[in-house]
Write a structure and sequence with these properties.
Elements: H1 5-11, H2 14-20, E1 42-43, E2 56-58, H3 85-90, H4 94-110, E3 115-116, H5 140-155, E4 162-166, E5 179-181, H6 184-191, H7 193-202, E6 206-209, E7 213-214, E8 217-218, H8 223-233, E9 239-241, H9 250-255, H10 276-285, H11 291-305, H12 322-336, E10 338-342, E11 353-357, H13 382-388, E12 392-393, H14 395-410, E13 416-417, E14 423-424, H15 435-444, E15 447-453, H16 473-488, E16 492-498, E17 514-517, H17 525-534, E18 569-571, H18 580-585, E19 603-613, E20 616-625, E21 634-640, E22 652-658, E23 667-675, E24 681-682, E25 687-688, E26 692-701, E27 704-713
Helix pairs in contact: 2-11, 4-5, 4-12, 5-7, 13-17, 15-16
Bound molecules: beta-D-glucopyranose.
Beta-D-glucopyranose (BGC) is lined by residues 41, 59, 117, 164, 243-244, 371.
Length: 714
């Protein structure tokens, strides 16, 4: 049936209109007694007499978040756990993001969901943001490009994606009230940019406004943001929804072009919650909100929803291709592993006798918590992955861990449930051996591995404390002991980082011969680590975010804002100097820089050519595999602008490309197009491209520039 949107709007009563711009409740616990898809985050309202079906919205960035088990139902509704977004960005592979998006999109559709509440594209402003794992990068171009490809993938399946959280939601502390103060330049160049890129390239169906205020106004109540920038300037054609329970004035939200208020509370259970519908109705009766205004919001929503599976009466199977998607999850995470250090420790052979230490071998972290969590049917932990892939592990050691962890979890370290039904998982002791025991394990084995884990999630930021940003004392102790033991016997010792965001590495990185950053890799975790250790996978990930040497080096001094303890305001007074833009300009050496990552092979860059074609600068060069084994390389193009009227960062990423798998001696010519507009700086009022000499810098990381050339723009 074809929906004539204007006809439908003309038939809606004013009450129907008012209630249609408000959602119908979230998850069973929040009051929707009969969710269409259990565990989905929300729904839009059904108007049966007009043939408007309910549509379903569900999280999130690392995989579709729905309840795997339902009451009185023996079927299972597991969705694939993909690597977290930061790891996806570490692939720097647009095609991979498209593939992951497609796979997630299929699960969304086949489980009866209409819109996926992803990707999340806030910026890694500070390493302690609790949701950094859900965001791609500190760089707006990398973020925007990853998001655009992901959105294309999702939407190719006939379901919608949602860019969130629009905008400047770079912390969890007081996220529902904090006022983010940011200059228009930083806003445009850093924080809005990824949204702009993804909207222009991929036309996402929806955008989610954020919880926080932007320069004094809630983003969901900010017409400048939601109308002028988003629609008039960028041409956004979808609809905007609030984040769940965001803002403080429903009428203002409607007036400010925030089309849909989520999750809504038609099924009122929590009496302390305000009723948006009543607020809108009162504003309508006062004449503050007009019928035309409502029509406009409904038009925006319906224009999107008519494309959704629910409107098309799609007969979903509840049987997505989970087997195929597990392979895609594996592939994506295997390209997102970042090899931070390797003094000839890796790869190893199946003969190498390996002693794996750390409770993370059993309690492997597949992803973060909150709305970005997932419920896959399995997660292969590191030890099981190692066994499955035939690594020659010390079985007595892994058995020790299995028993010890079981014992810990049944005594002092019991896992309990939190207020939202989430698991509260006490951290386990890591230093569980005497020097003699370590000595014995060292003598029996050729390589020592320690697995270090971290988890964080929605609602709280990470802590600048031991056990979070810093190593806990027992972690430091066991790393020191293992390092000493293995090295004194002429053996290698490596650390595996199973984390969602940077930690301090500077104080201990010299103690090991290798560091493998596996991030939070999703359900295939153990298989990926084993394949990287064995060299079945040659690491090709690069850092999408800087690992600073010291927290004191981080440019965002105001985090999470002032006053301390209960911040009301966070000032982004570092301006555009976020991430490497800061470290490079102010010559602060990081532990591991943006764009960094090693491979088991080596690459050579040559033959840089630059030409102008119309409004574009075309940068091309050769990348050759000069080592002994096949591998992929992420080639990056940075541009250093002229010293003009406006101060600029030392350099900025303007393009990147991942090669195909190059065999030894094989090369690929990479071509990257940079539009002249992409060289623009926002001077406070508008975008300006300054004349002068631009340096085009091609490299393997932001600090490993291999080729340079000047380009004069006049
Ligand atoms: C989160 C969003 C999420 C929504 C629905 C909010 O708390 O900030 O990212 O999409 O909940 O689950």
């Amino acid at each position: 049936m074809l929906f004539d949107i204007e006809e439908i709007i003309s038939q809606m009563t004013i009450d129907e209109k008012i209630s249609f711009v408000v959602g119908v409740g979230v998850l069973g616990a929040f009051g929707n007694p009969n969710p269409k898809v259990s565990g989905a985050a929300g729904e839009t309202r059904e108007i049966e007499r007009l043939g408007i079906p309910r549509t379903v919205l569900a999280d999130g960035p690392a995989g579709l978040r729905i309840d795997p088990l339902r009451e009185n139902d023996n079927n299972k509704y597991h969705a694939t756990a993909f690597p977290v977004e930061t790891m996806l960005a570490s692939t720097w592979n647009r095609e991979m993001l498209r593939k992951v998006g497609q796979a997630m999109g299929e699960e969304v559709r086949e489980y009866g969901v209409d819109i996926l509440l992803a990707p999340a594209i806030n910026i890694h402003r500070n390493p302690l943001c609790g949701r950094n794992f859900e965001y791609y990068s500190e760089d707006p171009l990398l973020t925007g490009e990853m998001a655009a490809s992901f959105v294309e993938g999702v939407q190719s399946q006939g379901v919608g994606a949602c860019l969130k959280h629009f905008v400047v939601n770079e912390q969890e502390t007081n996220r529902m009230s904090v006022d983010t103060i940011v200059s228009e330049r930083a806003l445009r160049e850093i924080y809005l940019k990824p949204f702009e890129i993804a909207i222009k390239k991929a036309k996402p169906w929806t955008v989610m406004s954020s919880y926080n205020k932007l320069n004094g106004k809630y983003t969901s109540q900010n017409k400048w943001l939601l109308k002028k920038v988003l629609r008039d300037e960028w041409g956004f054609e979808g609809f905007v929804m609030t984040d769940w329970f965001a803002g403080d004035n429903a009428a203002e939200q409607i007036k400010s072009w925030n089309d849909l208020l989520m999750p809504g509370n038609t099924y009122q259970i929590h009496s302390h919650r305000r009723r948006e519908i009543d607020e809108i109705k009162e504003a309508y009766e006062r004449g503050e909100i007009t019928e035309d205004m409502l029509n406009e919001r409904i038009r925006a929503i319906l224009k999107v929803l008519v494309k959704a599976p629910a409107f098309r009466k799609y007969n979903y199977s509840n049987k997505p291709n989970l087997e195929e998607h597990a392979k895609i999850s594996y592939e994506a995470s295997s390209e997102g592993v970042v090899l931070l250090k390797n003094n000839g420790a890796l790869p190893i052979s199946k003969k190498t006798r390996v002693a794996i230490f750390g409770t993370g071998q059993i309690e492997t972290i597949r992803g973060g918590t909150g709305s970005g969590e997932t419920h896959p049917s399995y997660t292969i932990n590191f030890i099981d992955g190692a066994i499955e892939k035939g690594l020659n592990i010390d079985k007595s050691l892994s058995e020790f861990y299995r028993n010890k962890i079981a014992q810990f979890r049944s005594s002092e370290y019991v896992i309990t449930k939190g207020q939202w039904g989430e698991d509260i998982v006490p951290k386990l002791p890591e230093d569980n051996f005497s020097e003699e025991e370590i000595e014995a394990y060292t003598s029996k084995n050729d390589l020592g591995i320690y697995i270090l884990t971290r988890i964080s999630g929605e609602g709280v930021d990470r802590k600048l404390e031991k056990g979070d940003f810093y190593l806990a004392d027992d972690e430091y102790r066991i790393i020191s002991k293992l390092s000493k033991a293995f090295r004194s016997q002429g053996k290698k010792f490596i650390v595996v980082l199973n984390i969602g965001a940077p930690i301090e590495v500077e104080s201990w990185k010299e103690m090991c011969d290798g560091i493998v950053l596996v991030w939070q890799p999703g359900q295939e975790a153990g298989r990926i680590l084993a394949d990287v250790l064995l060299g079945n996978v040659n690491p090709s990930g690069k850092l999408p975010t800087t690992f600073p040497k010291r927290y004191e080096d981080v440019p965002s001094r105001s985090f999470p804002g002032e006053p301390a303890g209960n911040p009301m305001v966070v000032e982004y007074d570092e301006g555009i100097y976020v991430g490497y833009r800061y470290y490079d300009t102010f010559r602060i050496e990081p532990a591991y820089e943006f764009g960094y990552g090693l491979s088991y092979t080596t690459f050579e860059y040559s033959d840089l050519k630059i030409r102008r074609v119309g409004g574009e600068i075309v940068v091309s060069f050769e990348v050759k595999n000069t080592g002994d084994i096949p591998g992929k390389e992420v080639a990056q193009v940075y541009v250093r602008g002229p010293k003009g009227k406006i101060d600029k960062p030392y350099q900025e990423l303007k393009g990147f490309e991942k090669t195909r798998i190059l065999k030894p001696k094989e090369s690929e010519r990479i071509e990257i197009r940079i539009t002249i507009e992409d060289l623009g700086t926002f001077d406070g009022r508008c975008w300006v491209v300054e004349e002068g000499e631009y340096e085009i810098r091609v490299g393997a990381s932001s600090r490993d520039i291999r080729l340079k050339a000047k380009y004069i723009l006049d």
